């Protein structure tokens, strides 16, 4: 086979993995018991690797708060000193098949959703979404009230959810997405339909759980219209675990930001990151006094859902998100068409009625992005430099990442070919 034929075959294999995956949410476990490679002094952060000294304020706060939560340190100052001394290590979530939205971090004692890809054999993980309270570690805020919620999630919340999911025998996420096609979710920044559909499947099993906090947990789940996002992130990570084992492939299999740098990963080079300065997510602000100068760069792993075709890639599925963030229906169409131009395939299980029943594009080929000079657009929530959510909107993915990825793939393929 020629190199071109090997690349084409590898890309078809990755596309098959992505389009034939069967994602099943099977459990809720402490990260230390579930995530391969997790250690007692390791805290996972979103986006590409970064030196501790370079962590932006929200991630610094989240890491130190998580260290206190896990009993690794008593105060924020003590925790930071331990991080600087490398006594507490930080790692890139996606390199461990995990996802952390915004400035979420994953510490060893935190519960994680466990999602299996029953077709390809991968498993992914993500911490639960903390709910609608703006004072959460997810946005780089820590205090007694945040710790109280973290402890509830680690204790009663995880216990009830875990038992319910196990009683269910596993919840099929593809079925959830199929049921909610045409209900307005783009399933990165908007997923009320998917969250409600998931609750409909989960609550009957929660009612069978004998636990004093059961009713409170049911209320928390049913009131959280973002609940599905973190389950879906774990699902996408399960798929990408298998994709990262395919040499020669030029398909994007990871992306995220740490507030300073934004990066992508490709199947053919696995956990290697290709990075550049993180773009800012612009759109609408929660407060009229906020300006673009207050924004941190792209922060979070939740855009890994877009690697699988959700969010900005399937913007046409959720045009109301465009309306909410200052865009139009035409903008939604254009975002999805851009993704189609640089993608290798299309999902068929969730057709969008107002888009001629087409599915959403999947399998972004980094060669196409560079060759056609077409940049996909990502949806996301914007973070304040000092911590807290600024608003929500979109960002064009930076070309520098894709150019670097093409160069990295050429280098890797030459090694494989013995050149």
Terminal CA distance: 16 Å
Strand percent estimate: 15-25%
Computed structural class: alpha+beta
Quaternary structure state of the chains depicted: single chain
Query: What is the 3D form?
Result: globular
Helix residue percentage: 25-40%
Counting DSSP E segments of at least 2 residues, the number of strands comes to 16
CATH topology annotation of the largest domain: Enterococcus faecalis V583 fold
The helix tally amounts to 14
Unreliable stretches, pLDDT < 50, 5 or more residues? none
N-to-C SSE string, H for helix and E for strand: HEHEHHEEEEHEHHHHEEEEEHHHEEHEEH
Give the name of the CATH superfamily of the largest domain: Enterococcus faecalis V583 domain
């Amino acid at each position: 086979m020629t190199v071109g034929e090997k690349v084409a075959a590898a890309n078809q294999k990755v596309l098959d993995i992505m389009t034939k995956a069967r994602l099943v949410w099977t459990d809720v476990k402490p990260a230390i018991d579930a995530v391969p490679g997790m250690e007692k002094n390791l805290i996972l952060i979103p986006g590409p690797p970064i030196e501790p000294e370079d962590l932006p304020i929200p991630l610094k706060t989240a890491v130190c708060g998580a260290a206190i939560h896990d009993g690794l340190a008593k105060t924020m100052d003590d925790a930071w000193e331990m991080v600087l001394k490398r006594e507490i290590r930080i790692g890139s979530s996606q390199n461990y098949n995990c996802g952390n939205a915004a400035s979420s971090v994953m510490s060893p004692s935190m519960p994680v959703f466990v999602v299996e890809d029953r077709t390809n054999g991968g498993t992914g993980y993500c911490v639960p979404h903390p709910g609608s309270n703006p004072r959460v570690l997810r946005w780089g805020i820590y205090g007694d009230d945040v710790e109280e919620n973290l402890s509830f999630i680690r204790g009663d919340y995880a216990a009830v959810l875990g038992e319910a999911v196990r009683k269910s025998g596993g919840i099929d996420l593809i079925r959830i997405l199929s049921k909610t096609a045409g209900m307005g979710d783009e399933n990165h920044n908007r997923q009320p339909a998917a969250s409600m559909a998931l609750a409909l499947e989960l609550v009957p099993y929660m009612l069978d759980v004998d636990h004093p906090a059961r009713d409170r947990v049911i209320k928390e789940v049913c009131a959280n219209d973002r609940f599905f996002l973190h389950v879906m992130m774990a699902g996408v990570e399960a798929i990408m675990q298998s994709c990262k084992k395919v040499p020669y492939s030029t398909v994007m299999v990871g992306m995220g930001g740490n507030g300073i740098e934004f990066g992508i990963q490709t199947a053919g080079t696995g956990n290697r990151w290709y990075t550049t300065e993180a773009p800012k997510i612009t759109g609408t602000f929660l407060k009229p006094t906020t300006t673009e100068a207050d924004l941190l760069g792209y922060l979070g792993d939740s855009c890994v859902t877009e690697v699988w075709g959700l969010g900005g890639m399937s913007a046409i599925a959720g045009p109301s998100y465009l309306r909410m963030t200052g865009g139009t229906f035409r903008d939604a169409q254009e975002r999805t068409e851009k993704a189609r131009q640089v993608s290798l395939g299309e999902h068929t299980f969730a057709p969008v009625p107002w888009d001629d029943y087409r599915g959403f594009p999947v399998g972004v080929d980094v060669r196409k992005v560079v060759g056609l000079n077409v940049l996909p657009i990502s949806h996301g929530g914007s973070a304040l430099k000092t911590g807290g959510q600024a608003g929500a909107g979109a960002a064009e993915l930076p070309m520098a990442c894709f150019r670097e990825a093409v160069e990295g793939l050429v280098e890797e393929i030459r090694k494989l070919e013995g050149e």
